[in-house]
Amino acid sequence: MTNDLLGRHRAVLPDWLALYYEEPLEITHGEGRHVWDAQGNRYLDFFGGILTTMTAHALPEVTKAVSEQAGRIIHSSTLYLNRPMVELAERIAQVSGIPDARVFFTTSGTEANDTALLLATAYRRSNTILAMRNSYHGRSFSAVGITGNSGWSPTSLSPLQTLYVHGGVRTRGPFASLSDDAFIAACVDDLKDLLGHTRPPAALIAEPVQGVGGFTAPPDGLYAAFREVLHERGILWIADEVQTGWGRTGEHFWGWQAHSRNGPPDIMTFAKGIGNGMSIGGVVARSEIMNCLDSNSISTFGGTQVTMAAGLANLTYLLEHDLQGNARRVGGLLIERLRAVAAHVPAVREVRGRGLMIGIEITKPGTDEADPQTAAAVLEAARAGGLLIGKGGGHNTSALRVAPPLSLNVAEAEEGAAILENALRSIP
Asked: DSSP labels for 160-228?
């Protein structure tokens, strides 16, 4: 059955639509932190549909909210008043940390970043964007145009002029050998120098932790230091929280809060986890920025009632059960366990991350050279052991990505770490 489905997939879907595993997997159902495939095999899920099943599979509170809303009305568009959309917008504005916040809903992180770019360039009347090296912001034409990861950038054409800034990767590049404070100072000097060579940009867009890039991050405070430079020049800061938001990093509810010395971002984007699998994205911005557009705009599917009901139920569950605190506690145990394992595996260059957002960088032993073949082999071995993880990286890097649902318990963390240990130790 799987081979038949694979053949049908290849016959009608694009060749560039990647599938994990030598024998691709059909996931048929899930519960809690586990999923099952079409053959009945059970897996511990440490990737959550690319960080999207954030709370748990088949969470009763979310499935009930979706079912009840679907029984009333599924969709009406933004042309009509929509109570679930208003209620979720109120909750997100409150927790965003952005003053006088307005919220616009989309269907994905890509569309959210597109909207943020539209707002920033319209508000600033500039099509120049600053972005981070090794970044990823989505699949659309404009999002690809600002992506600083060549593996996810199929064209150099763009409606934007993009300039790339140092700082998103702490342990590689020309400043890697510096202390944290010196690293930040060097990146700030680089930013100032860059701004002296170009027309005034509209905004800097940055992921507090780079997701597709392999869960890399700068020292805490880098974006606060950048913001000081940007604010002096009127340049906006867009925080891409598509993967880092909602408490995943454990220490903070939003990734930008590790860089909050000079205040919150001007614009913040979100998606993935808030819907726990339902298709929700969105933008939060100060009212004068959100309201700067001078022509009509709507969203046909952004804010649709059934997805808003899911988001409300999911956010309520997350806050009431302190899943941010759970990510901090259980994630801390998991990352230390993985670091202990990695100390005895020469192919592991680094275990990094915070909360339940952990990257394991794989290199050829004794070098800094990426080893994507070995990373793929570990992915396969983990699956054979009953564990699903992800992978990523950019510019001669290869990393495994570990991002379980935020309700992960200690026993499941230990189980997953043991499977990963066996997979890593199976490297020839």
From this structure: SEEEEES-S-SSSSTTTTS-HHHHHHHHHHHHHHHHTTSSPPSEEEE-SSBTTTTSB---TTHHHHHHH
Percent of the chain with pLDDT over 70: 100
* Token pair recorded at residue 143: 């999002």
The reported pLDDT for the residue numbered 384 is: 98
Sign, CA torsion 89/119/264/279: positive
**For residues 413 and 45, is the Cβ–Cβ distance under 8 A?**
no
DSSP state of 278: B
For residue 410, the tally of other CB atoms under 10 A from its CB is: 12
Structure tokens at 417: 């770490």
Tell me what the mean pLDDT of segment 142-168 comes to: 92
Q: Which two tokens stand for residue 283?
A: 């933008």
DSSP-derived 3-state class of residue 66:
helix
- What CA–CA distance (Å, rounded) separates 111 from 232? 29
- pLDDT tens column, 300-337: 999 999 999 999 999 999 999 999 999 999 999 999 99
**Residues across the chain:** 428
Residues 6+ apart with CB under 8 A from 157: 141, 145
pTM above 0.90, yes or no: yes
Q: Residue 153, Cα to own-chain centre: how many angstroms? A: 17
Predicted local confidence at residue 1, as pLDDT: 63
Going by C-alpha positions, the residue among 110, 108, 84 that lies closest to residue 314 is 84
Report, as an integer, the average pLDDT of 224-251: 98
- The H helix count followed by the E strand count for the chain is 13, 15
Q: Which phi-psi region, left, alpha or beta, contains residue 263 (left: φ > 0; alpha: ψ -120 to 50)?
A: left
Of 256, 251, 197, 192, the residue nearest 224 (C-alpha) = 256
Distance from chain centroid for Cα 9: 26
Is the pLDDT at 375 greater than 70? The verdict is: yes
Task: Please state, rounded to an integer, the average pLDDT across all residues of the chain.
Answer: 96
| DSSP result, 310-378 | HHHHHHHHHHHTTHHHHHHHHHHHHHHHHHHHHTT-TTEEEEEEETTEEEEEEBSTTSS-B-HHHHHHH
Q: Which helix (H) or strand (E) holds 121?
A: helix 109-124
User: Alpha-carbon distance 397 to 399, whole Å?
Assistant: 7
- pLDDT for res 101: 98
Spatial contact of 166 and 131, defined as CB atoms under 8 Å apart: no
Q: Is the pLDDT of residue 428 over 80?
A: no
